[in-house]
Amino acid sequence: MAGVSLPLRLEYISSTGKAANGAPNLIYGPGSNAWSITFTPTYQYKIFFARAEFSHVGTSSTTPGLVFGPNGTNTTQTRAGV
User: Fold this and answer.
1) Which of 1, 38, 48, 66 could bridge to 55 as Cys pair (CB 3.0-4.6 Å)?
2) pTM here?
3) pLDDT class for 68, splitting at 50, 70, 90?
C-alpha cells in the first residue's frame, strides 16, 4: 500500500550493581533490566501524515516503588497513542 509504513522496534537495557554496595539507580533500581517492543504504523499523503504508536515494556530485578503503576510495583506497562 502506497504511503504506509509499519516499523517495529525492539530494545533492551540493563544495569549492574546492588543498592547495598552504593550502585546508582539508572533505570528501575540497581541491577534491574527492561525490554520493550514498539509498533508505529504510519500513513503519509504528500506532506501530511498520521501515526499511531503501540508499546509494551517488561522489567525484572526491579526495586519495588520504582517501576510502573500508582504504587510503583507493576513490572509491565502497555501504552498506545496517536
Assistant:
1) 38
2) 0.80
3) very high
Angle at 61 between CA 34 and CA 53, to 5 degrees: 20
For residue 44, how far is the Cα from the chain centroid? 25
How would you label 19-40 residue by residue, b for 16+ Cβ within 10 Å and e otherwise? Answer: eeeeeeeebbbbbbbbebeeee
Q: CA torsion 32→63→59→78, rounded to 10°?
A: -140
Q: Is 29 in contact with 66 (CB distance < 8 Å)?
A: yes
Instruction: Report the alpha-carbon distance of residue 32 to residue 76 in Å, rounded.
Output: 13
Q: What is the mean pLDDT of residues 22-27?
A: 75
User: What pLDDT does 57 receive?
Assistant: 97
